[in-house]
């Protein structure tokens, strides 16, 4: 019996197909190896960069915590300044008010002393006048001169 031409042709096509599949598998395998090499190189390049990025993130977090603390300190200090300013203004007003009262009291006291002194001088003059009796003409002149 002679080999069937269709069967021989099918075997040839199967061999060709198998060969092409092997060739394609080799190409895919080489491409996969190349991709793995490139990925390894990329990771080597990214390694230091990843470390640097991580260090920067850590530093940013550290500084952020410091900033939050500084902001809280600033708010506290601002409130203290406002309270101190308000206290200073109140005490300044108290001082001004006390100074005004003192000035008024001193002025009233001085006016009272001046009035009392004038009254005492007048009494003293009258007393002196009554003790030293002037001559009748002098008394008349004194009376005429004061009117």
Automatic annotation (TrEMBL):
* Residue runs in coiled coils: 14-73
Q: Which UniProt keywords apply?
A: Coiled coil
Q: What is this protein called?
A: RAB6-interacting golgin
Q: Which organism is it from?
A: Diacronema lutheri (Unicellular marine alga)
């Amino acid at each position: 019996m002679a080999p069937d031409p269709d069967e021989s042709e099918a075997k040839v096509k199967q061999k060709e197909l198998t060969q092409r599949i092997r060739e394609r598998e080799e190409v895919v395998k080489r491409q996969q190896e190349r991709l793995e090499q490139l990925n390894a190189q990329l990771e080597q390049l990214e390694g230091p960069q990843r470390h640097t990025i991580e260090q920067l993130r850590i530093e940013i977090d550290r500084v952020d915590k410091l900033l939050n603390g500084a902001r809280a300190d600033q708010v506290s200090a601002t409130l203290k300044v406002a309270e101190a300013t308000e206290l200073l203004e109140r005490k300044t007003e108290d001082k001004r008010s006390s100074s005004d009262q003192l000035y008024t009291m001193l002025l009233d006291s001085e006016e009272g002393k001046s009035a009392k002194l004038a009254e005492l001088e007048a009494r003293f003059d009258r007393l002196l006048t009554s003790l030293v009796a002037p001559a009748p003409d002098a008394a008349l002149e004194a009376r005429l001169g004061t009117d």
